[in-house]
Amino acid sequence: MKYEQLAKDIIENVGGKENVNSVVHCITRLRFKLKDEEKANTEVLKEMDGVVTVMKSAGQYQVVIGNHVPDVYKAVVEVGGLESKGSADEADGGDKGSLLNRFIDMISGIFTPILGVLAASGMIKGFNALFVAIGWLNEEGGTYQILNATGDALFYFLPIILGYSAMKKFGGTPFIGMVIAMALVYPALEGIPGAAEPLYTLFAGTVFESPVYIEFFGIPVILMTYSMSVIPIIVATFFAAKIEKALAKITPNVVKMFFVPMFTLLIIIPLTFIVIGPIATWASQLLGQVTVWVYDLSPIIAGAFLGGFWMVFVMFGLHWGLVPIAFNNVAVSGEDPILALIFVHSFALAAAVLAIWIKTKNETTKTLSPPAFISSIFGVTEPALYGIALPLKRPFIISLISSAVGGAIIGLFGTKIHLLGGLGIFQFPAMIHPEEGLNTAFIGTIIAAAVGMVLSFVLTYFFGGINQKATAAPAAEAASAKEETVITIQNEDIVSPLTGETIALEKIEDTAFASGTLGKGIAVEPTEGKLISPVSGTVSAMFPTNHAIGITTENGAEILMHIGMDTVQLDGKHFTGHVEQGAKVDKGQLLIEFDIPEIKKAGFPLTTPIIITNSGDYKDIAFTETKQIKIGDPLLSLEK
């Protein structure tokens, strides 16, 4: 580990890990909350190689590192065995928006680590289905079986993968999350309903009628299928992380290593089977009954309802209340309307991803979009849903609306499926009437798919908010931002990104910036709440709270602009970002808007350093002598 020794020295000189309540990082520094700051060896830390300086502010013990602080932070967390809380905005919590937004952020964050392999698996599944459809493979052959296992494995065992990433996000031990998921998809338990007669039936004759095959200490357990599910394991790991932390506080250290995971598993796994399972089962059964009732009332309303909410139902596992009804309809009467009504959702999602693919400036999103689009066309929607549409929020909502319109059209034409099998474009044959052939109902399917796609594409392209904020795959963006590009340093003139009064850097309050150790530069006291790009280049760092941004110019200058002092503690309030990390920007482009009166009202100075963090690459840096400066006025001149 590159920063292992530095991390060890930092932990030792802040008083040891037992003196650390928490540690997070911002764009240049580690922010410790110490139990006793007197135990820290401040002077030793200041003289340490790799440490710029040490500051005490706002109840935090700040060890200033520089641009590579995320890497040092990871080393500190790993070496010290500390809890990883990420960047300051992630750790401090606060108002993160509506409940829906927080839920979407949580889900997309859990899926971020697996986006690449999720997209790859979706493509394999789609192409395998295509090869069968055109006659290259048959479903009985070994080639098909191996390819199917390759593409389907991630989706079937998705709870296990999510058990790891969700538990990690909730601050628990990831392997405990994996074991919880393994219990949920344990083959011996999943196979019981098909191999044995129920012991008895709960709530017989009601919508909540549930056969019981096994009991846990006399408590009935309602078994359901957890493979390919999402929400049950996320809910389970959420509570498991809390249980694990509570047990860790009361368990003696000598037995903590095995007692804490043992009792966490013994508590949460039965609770998941006994509580989460029944709730999901009854909710899905109720959904099935409501859907049948709505379809009998109006196929158009049922189509809009099912089409609009199908992806949401799948996320929560509620679709299992509808799938058995659909299967039974096909088996008994040879046709089913339910699976026909949800047909458009994959095409609407594919069209939204296509619009994102065409319009996005984010390189990671653009890379993920093609496989997500292809797999959605083939009916595998997880890569597009969790990797792209859901994190961006608006395309997800637009996909739901477009799918609802398509479902209503299918309901209007009375379209039904006549056989099971096939997703996406491969579901078209299932809608061909066995006697009437390509009848009006089938034509309605084509119209619905076309309308859903066009509507989704147009709305996403123009109103999807594609380039407004950080988009899909934040973890992948962060990784790609670290990739080194060989640039030849050249002379460069930099204009002011702000309107206000210039201040010599050494006169500002923050000693980390004032000392010049983070780089040479100048500060501006802004009088207008707009920060524009002083150069053309690439956003190399965009802090989630939108209070700081780094840009690497086309000529190799690395510029850091930090709006205000300690404004990271505002958790993004009063700041609005207009670009994303990795985006290409033009000189004069609006980067960030901020509310000067509200920030000052909150007690934070707005003095903004503009730093050349690679000052050592230049022979000379000249500063403007103008006191009152406007956006676009000359500010710095860099001489190679």
From TrEMBL:
The chain crosses the membrane at residues 110-137, 143-163, 175-196, 216-241, 253-280, 300-326, 338-358, 370-389, 396-421, 441-463. It is found in: Cell membrane. Residues 4-86 form the PTS EIIB type-1 domain. One of its GO terms (biological process) is trehalose transport. The keyword Transmembrane applies. GO terms for cellular component: plasma membrane. Its main location: membrane. Residues 510-614 form the PTS EIIA type-1 domain. It is a multi-pass membrane protein. It comes from the Bacteria. Signal peptide: none annotated. One of its GO terms (molecular function) is kinase activity. Pfam families: PTS_EIIA_1, PTS_EIIB, PTS_EIIC. Residues 105-479 form the PTS EIIC type-1 domain. The active site is at residue 26. Keywords: Cell membrane, Kinase, Membrane, Phosphotransferase system, Sugar transport, Transferase, Transmembrane, Transmembrane helix, Transport. The keyword Transferase applies. SUPFAM superfamilies: Duplicated hybrid motif, Glucose permease domain IIB. PANTHER family: PHOSPHOTRANSFERASE SYSTEM TRANSPORT PROTEIN, PTS SYSTEM ARBUTIN-, CELLOBIOSE-, AND SALICIN-SPECIFIC EIIBC COMPONENT-RELATED. This is PTS system beta-glucoside-specific EIIBCA component. It comes from Oceanobacillus oncorhynchi. The lineage of its organism: Bacteria, Bacillati, Bacillota, Bacilli, Bacillales. The gene is bglF_6.
